[in-house]
Amino acid sequence: MRTLNDLRRGERAVIARIAGVGGDEITVRRLHEMGFDDGVEVEMLHRGPVGGDPLALRVGSMVVGLRKALAGMIEIEAAAAFAEAAE
């Protein structure tokens, strides 16, 4: 499955789930507090200049900076595919 790290600039997707955190409930809670919830649309705005870290993402109506390590834990689906499944 694709993760937030796979998005290109300007591409949008929908969060499918947070995976690969190895039982780290604090990290999962922090991501949810920042708006990374299942079904929320995200858009890649910008990648940092050194190795593409950090990422600037639009999450719902907020802009959030996120390290690539955390972005790799957030699985996504194409925004169109999510909309079709909801119908």
TrEMBL record:
Ranges in a coiled coil: none
Organism: Glacieibacterium frigidum
InterPro entries, per database record: Fe-transptr_FeoA-like, FeoA, FeoA_core_dom, Transcriptional_repressor_C
Protein's UniProt keywords contain Iron: yes
Residue span(s) of domain Ferrous iron transporter FeoA-like: 2-78
Alphabetical list of Gene3D superfamilies matching this protein: 2.30.30.90
A Pfam family matched in the record: FeoA
Keyword field: Iron
Protein's recorded name: Ferrous iron transport protein A
Keyword Chloroplast among record annotations: no
GO molecular-function terms, A-Z: transition metal ion binding
